[in-house]
Amino acid sequence: MERRRKPTAGKARGSVNRAGRKSVNSSLHLSHIADLITSGEITVGMLRPIGCVATAADEDCTYAMLVRRKNESLLELLTRLDQAIAKAQEKNIFTDEING
Description:
Number of strands: 4
Shape: globular
Mean pLDDT: 84
Strand order of the largest sheet: 1-2-3-4
Strand content: 15-25%
Distance between the termini: 65 Å
Number of helices: 2
Low-confidence stretches: 11-24
Radius of gyration: 20 Å
Helix content: 10-25%
Order of helices and strands: HEEEHE
Largest sheet: 4 strands, mixed
């Protein structure tokens, strides 16, 4: 009978580097998203056939619907979403990249 190899302990995939937690940009603060999610929501996900999208809404209004740009990082998309929420709340200008 053939022996099976026992799994060896190694670095777990997808683990959190607890020692390096503060290595993430601590100056990043998405204040408009933070305020909105106390009573509303943001959604990030795949919308076929459009691609990756991010939306921000509450029960009264949809503030922004963005399409992720080619080579745009998630952080960049969330920053744009935060800015679009601010634009909607402060200037009453709503961004809709999904419906044109």
